[in-house]
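step 4 of 6: structure.
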Amino acid sequence: MNLLNDESLLSHDRAHAQADAPLYERLAAHYRRVIASGTLAPGDRMPSVRALMSRHKVSLSTAIQVFRRLEDGGWLQARPRAGYFVRRPAASKLATVAEPDIPVLPEPARYVGLHERISRVIERAQAFPDALNLGGATAGAALYPTERLQSLASRILRHKPTLLTEVGEDGGAAELRQAIAKRALTADVTVAPDDVLITSGGVEAVNLALRAVAQPGDTIAVESPAFFGLLQILESLGLRALEIPTSPTTGLSLEALDIALTACPEIKAVVAVPNLQNPLGCVMPDTRKAELVALCARRGVALIEDEPYRELVEAAQPARPLKSWDRDGGVIHCASLNKALAPGMRLGWMSSGRWHARVRLLKFAQTRHNESLAQFVAAEFIGSGAYDRHLHRLRDKLRVQREASADAIGRYFPAGTRLNLPPGGLLLWVALPDGRSSDALFEAALPHGIRIAPGSIFSNSERFRSFIRLSCPVPFDERMDAALRQLGRLAAGIA
Ligand SMILES: Cc1ncc(COP(=O)(O)O)c(C=O)c1O
């Protein structure tokens, strides 16, 4: 089937895209899907403007807007006098990060002793408030729909003037829980609005999940490397971490997890970030996601899915969460709007399967319900077509930023530097050559006005001392280029 000529496919896309999106946006979304699915491969020539006009019965200006939109989003590249071509991803010049070894026996589970190290890194970074922050994990405010959210907030307050003064709903606003449950259907998750609990970001959701399934002293299997915030939570709850090798391409090693679950029957839960793992950026293939859910169910171990980045995955179909394979309520799904929509609103949510009642009780005892205004704003935005349009734009911008940064790293960093280009998000996990210390690079970069995240805070071991996590939070401009050039110079000079 020639997808490009297939009007019925476009009608299908149109039905899926929100009806209120302008025609050029819907057509651009159609061609993004065609490219993401591989029907048009990197280097292929796009149909001409004229072909687009006759194929989709659109005007010249609409066809031109489609091309502009795709070019701005980094999907197409114009070649003078030759037309538009599908862009090749950048940074394939660098070798990829090595796969981890799978040990025959797991390392012993340890209490995390990282809080001081992480706090010191944060404190040092904060001493340079004007530095370009390449150490965070949220995009710059310009990438989020500030004005739209602001006008929604004003309108909602006009209609519900007591929103700031009356007590909110236990468990979260019904409107938001409903919008989240409806959207979950697009990722093959069926969850009732009553099973959704609104939290203060993903961090609170993971906290509650761990408190529901484990007691101080218990062992939790985590990815290695892991998001440092998770390691801080484990430390604060007096839980032990057992680090499981994690592939930079396929995620948590199921082979290593199987070995660990056999050797350590005391493991109470597994925490995994299957979609755009932080810091690796990998997305677990669906077959492995299904196997992970089945493995945890077979062993009777709770599976805590932490996925603040799922909506940032670039793929022809929405990425599936582990929860979509859950058959017996053994998966606690934790998600967040802080990366995809509005870091300032601090909204997250969870659906906790068989631990729902316990989690509700813990949330009530700990913080009561979230503030209402942000929830109403999020409910309206998510429930409208504006959310998908925003996500398309955000993913496109992040892709361009990521590729430009990876390209610059390829140009400026010492020979032997490795990185994987993730299929979404804003994080790059970079391996420095010859065992160079990322702590030394972190310190050396601060006086130059650059913050990075050193690999040492992503594990309780010394395993990642030569890695850095770099984010691409803002459009790639001269400042970003100069910062990466400077980092490359510094990396060449450290031991
Ligand atoms: C894997 C992971 N989980 C949870 C969080 C925290 O999410 P939130 O900001 O929604 O609390 C982050 C933030 O960086 C993260 O990377």
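step 5 of 6: annotate
 - Confidence is low (pLDDT under 50) at residues 1-17.
 - The chain has three domains: 3-86, 111-142+389-493, 145-387.
step 6 of 6: archive
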